[in-house]
Amino acid sequence: MHNLIYLTDLDDAALDPYVRLNEAQLSHALKPGLFIAESPKVIERALRAGYRPASLMVEEKFLERDLADLDHEMAVNKTAGLGHTPIYVANSDLVRQLPGYNLLRGALAAMYRISRPRLTDFLTTLPTSHPRIAILESVVNPANIGAIFRSAAALGIDGVVVTSDSADPLYRRSSRVAMGTVFQVPWTYIDAKSWQNDGITLLHQLGYQTAAMALRHNTVSIDDPRLNRVDKLAIILGAEGPGLRESTIVQSDFTIKIPMAPGVDSLNVAAASALAFWELGNR
């Protein structure tokens, strides 16, 4: 049985994650922090990955549909973890008071964050043979983060490292665009200030070669056979516009590019990641 709580207003402090806290505030609320997962599919993937729910919120007119979808996803994947979690049921008038209500794609869940391992510890959890990882340097658009994770899950990337000045993969828009694959692909953060020195150095010390996606005089195509012969490869992607920092490029073992028609020199970082992962991932 679901623990349904029908709302008449949004005043209860327990509803703050849905009503009064922005995403940055959520990340520091109720240690170890919260995030919002949206839609039954995304919520189920978070539960399957071991994230604990604090509560759910469902619009009353979609209650039967959303709970049926969530129950179906959980049954198909043999997922547990919902238990007696409070499920707040709001009528349409209350839902219209929620931030971004017009973009809602079903049920919402406030879920507890988990701690992220240090880069050294994270790398030891990845496959020892032919690992492929992606490094996201200062990628600030949540939609791009989500799309990159979705491609990483589909195209054989074993893990993702996100610099701390990038958009949060657990932001609602990120996980929604990713279709919940941010809970499927292993990932961690690295401090943006230490990434330039400590992070790249550590990757090299652990046997990784780095491939920066950038245009330089010595850039090679992503289908260069040398890249697939590399045992441990880290593919580094940068922000829209400025791209990768010069110091990142200089320290990389390769700079790589996607062959394109004349007159076009770049793709959106999410599109570029999909092509690079297709060519270089462990499919």
Automatic annotation (TrEMBL):
The keyword Ribonucleoprotein does not apply. SUPFAM superfamilies: alpha/beta knot, L30e-like. Residues 133-277 form the tRNA/rRNA methyltransferase SpoU type domain. The keyword Protease does not apply. Gene3D superfamilies: 3.30.1330.30, 3.40.1280.10. GO terms for molecular function: RNA binding; RNA methyltransferase activity. Keywords: Methyltransferase, Transferase. Pfam families: SpoU_methylase. InterPro entries: Alpha/beta_knot_MTases (IPR029028), Ribosomal_eL30-like_sf (IPR029064), rRNA_Methyltransferase (IPR051259), SpoU_MeTrfase (IPR001537), tRNA_m1G_MTases_N (IPR029026). GO terms for biological process: methylation; RNA processing. This is rRNA methyltransferase. The lineage of its organism: Bacteria, Bacillati, Bacillota, Bacilli, Lactobacillales.
